[in-house]
Structures are given as structure tokens and as C-alpha cells.
């Protein structure tokens, strides 16, 4: 039932599926442009954006404790059920783009698919931001809330590290 609601959500908002399909050509266009070293990184970022468009149900469930209590099942079960559509979308997207994107091997595609799902999950399940964290003054631009920066980097930092891994592969 939960997977079905995610599929209905995609039918009500078709722009998510259009962006998902439109991003499939991006890594190939970068490869045709001559930037062959950056094709795996672009593949990873495009896979993340495409997968993120399919994760509206996961975000809605993760950010609302009232909705999680309403179903009467464990939080982990709800999050895993709402991860089916983004994970399947990422897997299909990775397989399709692997077929026609030069300079992307199956290892790059696998890192992109698994990494995109992991980053989407980390961003969607991020706890609410705590604005009461301590700020440190480095003397350049005023006080910087280090704890807030760490909270905001929960998903993007993983995406950055996976991009470095794609460059090294």
C-alpha cells in the first residue's frame, strides 16, 4: 500500500518523472563535450537529482512524526517501504544511462546508483535543524555556527565524498 501511494504521488506530480527521464541524457552530453574525466561525477550528481525527485513520500514520512504514528508500524519499516520507489528508479536510471554513456563503467554506475540512494536517504531522514548550536568567530565574516554547518552537510558531504571516489576510479 505504501509503495502504491508513492506511485500515485508520481502520477499526481508528473514533473518528477519528466526530470528523472530528462537527466538521463546529461552524462552523455558531458562525454560528447570532451570532459571525459568528469563524466562519472556528473553521472553521480545526475543520479542523485533524479532519485531525489522520486523521494517525496520518504521525505513526507521522515519529517512528520504524526504520520509515522498514524500507521502503527515501526519507523524503519515505513522508511524502507518509501525507499522502494527511489531505489528502483535509481537502478533503472543507472542501467539505462550505463547503456549509452561513454566513459561510465558498471563500477561507476553501481557507485552512482547506491550513492544516490544513500544520499537521498540521508537527506530525507535528517533530523530537524537545531539553531541553538554554538557559533565560533574566526575573525573573517563573523560568528559561524559550526554545528549548523555539520547538520546541513549530512547528505551533501556524502555526495562530495562519492564524487571524489568516482574521480579516483
Automatic annotation (TrEMBL):
Keywords: Membrane, Transmembrane, Transmembrane helix. It comes from the Bacteria. InterPro entries: DUF6297 (IPR046264). The chain crosses the membrane at residues 41-61, 81-100, 106-124, 131-152. Pfam families: DUF6297. This is Uncharacterized protein. It comes from Lentzea guizhouensis.
Amino acid at each position: 500500500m505504501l509503495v502504491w501511494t508513492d506511485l500515485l504521488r508520481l502520477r499526481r506530480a508528473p514533473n518528477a518523472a519528466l526530470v528523472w527521464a530528462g537527466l538521463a541524457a546529461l552524462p552523455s552530453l558531458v562525454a560528447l563535450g570532451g570532459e571525459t574525466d568528469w563524466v562519472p561525477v556528473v553521472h553521480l550528481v545526475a543520479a542523485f537529482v533524479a532519485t531525489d525527485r522520486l523521494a517525496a513520500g520518504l521525505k513526507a514520512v521522515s519529517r512528520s512524526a504524526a504520520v509515522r504514528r498514524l500507521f502503527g508500524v515501526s519507523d524503519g519499516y515505513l522508511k524502507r517501504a518509501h525507499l522502494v520507489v527511489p531505489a528502483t528508479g535509481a537502478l533503472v536510471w543507472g542501467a539505462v544511462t550505463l547503456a549509452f554513456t561513454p566513459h561510465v563503467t558498471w563500477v561507476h554506475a553501481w557507485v552512482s546508483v547506491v550513492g544516490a540512494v544513500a544520499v537521498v536517504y540521508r537527506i530525507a531522514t535528517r533530523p530537524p535543524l537545531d539553531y541553538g548550536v554554538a557559533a565560533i568567530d574566526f575573525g573573517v565574516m563573523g560568528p559561524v555556527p559550526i554545528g549548523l554547518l555539520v547538520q546541513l552537510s549530512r547528505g551533501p558531504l556524502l555526495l562530495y565524498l562519492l564524487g571524489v571516489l568516482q574521480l579516483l576510479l
